């Protein structure tokens, strides 16, 4: 365990990661049972990415998410009550039941409602960063994306614009090695996605995305650089999705040996081992955190299922005309 961190802060990181995992697991079974409408793209196995990045941000910093953003929402401070209600399409949801799984967020908490278009959050985050610079605000924006988004034209356009204007933007790639079912090695020749940063004259860094403290430290350094006027950074967080691309994906394209290795390397178990080895918490304490999180999520399910549905006339509200 690295020294110098407050033990309660470390336990907070663990709780956030566990909350993301337990939320995703509960939602998965609600969908499988046919209780919840719509569809889902989940992030089990990638919890250290959202948690580490958002832990390094301030409350006034802004992030954009993807079609796989439940973890981003939780890490940025949204409550499981409002998120669960949103998934059920309820009026009490964070987007009043209008967004659902792929369009979840709350700008008052620093999360632009997620954008399901692959790469769609990049120009938004770039524009947010431009506004921060023009208003002389010490704030940063973060664009989360998957590895597949780095092959979209908007990725290159956004990084180029962020670079030439020295905008306070962090471009964060959650490289889970697959764009849907396509291995990243089949879609690019460079060894690391971060290597692409050199084309835009900005720093690029490849980080162990399953090490929450490594993610936190890399993000903190990049964010501090951006606040000083140093411009963007491309952060590649190498992780692994231990669930399907969507709820109907059985992951047959992932080799069994690879999946077993990923389970042994998943971030929550790794961090729990570090906390135990460092004397921060024992098994009983960590189990208590998990049980408390599960109870919180069950209460969120109960509230969401009994919450009111939106009214038909609500469709005419929250519109730009």
Please trace the helix and strand order, writing H or E for each element: HHEHHEHEHEEEEHEHHH
Pairing-aware structural class of the strands and helices?
alpha/beta
- Contiguous low-pLDDT stretches (5 residues minimum) are none
As laid out across the biggest beta sheet, the strand order is 2-1-3-4-8-7
Count the helices. How many? 10
Mean pLDDT: 96
Identify the CATH class.
Alpha Beta
- CATH-derived topology: Rossmann fold
Please tell me the total number of domains.
Answer: 1
Q: Number of DSSP strands?
A: 8
Proportion of strand residues: 5-15%
Shape: globular
> How far from one another are the termini?
54 Å
CATH architecture: 3-Layer(aba) Sandwich
Helix percentage range: 40-55%
- Let me know the largest β-sheet: 6 strands, parallel
Kindly report the oligomeric state of this protein.
single chain
Radius of gyration: 19 Å
CATH superfamily: Thiamin diphosphate (ThDP)-binding fold, Pyr/PP domains
Give a short overview.
The chain is an alpha/beta fold. The protein has one domain: Rossmann fold. The chain contains ten helices and eight strands.
Report on the structure:
By secondary structure, the protein is an alpha/beta fold. The chain has one domain: Thiamin diphosphate (ThDP)-binding fold, Pyr/PP domains (Rossmann fold, 3-Layer(aba) Sandwich), CATH 3.40.50.970. Helix content is 42%, strand content 10%. It is built from ten helices and eight strands. The chain has helices at 7-32, 47-55, 70-75, 80-87, 121-134, 153-164, 212-227, 256-264, 267-277, 283-306; strands at 62-64, 111-112, 141-146, 169-175, 178-179, 182-183, 204-208, 233-238. A six-stranded parallel sheet has the order 2-1-3-4-8-7. Helix 7 links the parallel strand 7 (204-208) and strand 8. The chain starts with 6 loop residues before the first helix and ends in a 15-residue tail after the last helix.
């Amino acid at each position: 365990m690295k020294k110098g961190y407050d033990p309660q802060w470390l336990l907070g990181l663990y709780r956030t990661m566990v909350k993301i995992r337990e939320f995703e697991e509960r939602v998965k079974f609600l969908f499988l049972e046919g209780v919840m409408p719509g569809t889902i793209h989940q992030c089990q196995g990638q919890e250290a990415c959202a948690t580490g990045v958002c832990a390094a941000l301030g409350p006034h910093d802004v992030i954009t998410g993807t079609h796989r953003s439940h973890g981003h929402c939780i890490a940025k401070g949204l409550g499981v009550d409002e998120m669960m209600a949103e998934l059920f399409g309820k009026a009490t949801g964070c987007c009043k039941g209008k967004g659902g799984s792929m369009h979840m967020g709350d700008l008052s908490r620093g999360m632009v409602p997620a954008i399901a278009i692959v790469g769609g959050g990049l120009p938004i985050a770039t524009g947010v960063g431009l506004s921060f610079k023009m208003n002389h605000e010490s704030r940063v924006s973060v664009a989360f994306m998957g590895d597949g988004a780095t092959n979209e034209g908007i990725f290159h356009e956004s990084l180029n614009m962020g670079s030439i204007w020295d905008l306070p933007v962090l471009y964060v790639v959650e490289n889970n090695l697959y764009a849907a079912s396509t291995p990243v090695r089949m879609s690019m020749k460079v060894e690391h996605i971060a290597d692409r940063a050199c084309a835009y004259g900005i720093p690029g860094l490849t980080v162990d995305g399953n090490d929450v403290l490594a993610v936190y430290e890399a993000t903190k350094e990049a964010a501090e650089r951006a606040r000083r006027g140093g411009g963007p950074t491309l952060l590649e967080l190498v992780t692994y999705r231990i669930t399907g691309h969507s709820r109907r994906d059985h992951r047959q394209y992932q080799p069994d040996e690879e999946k077993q290795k990923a389970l042994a390397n998943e971030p929550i178990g790794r961090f729990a081992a570090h906390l135990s080895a460092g004397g921060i918490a024992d098994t009983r304490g960590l189990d208590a955190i998990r049980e408390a999180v599960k109870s919180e999520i069950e209460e969120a399910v109960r509230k969401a299922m009994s919450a009111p549905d939106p009214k038909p006339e609500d469709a005419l509200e929250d519109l730009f005309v």
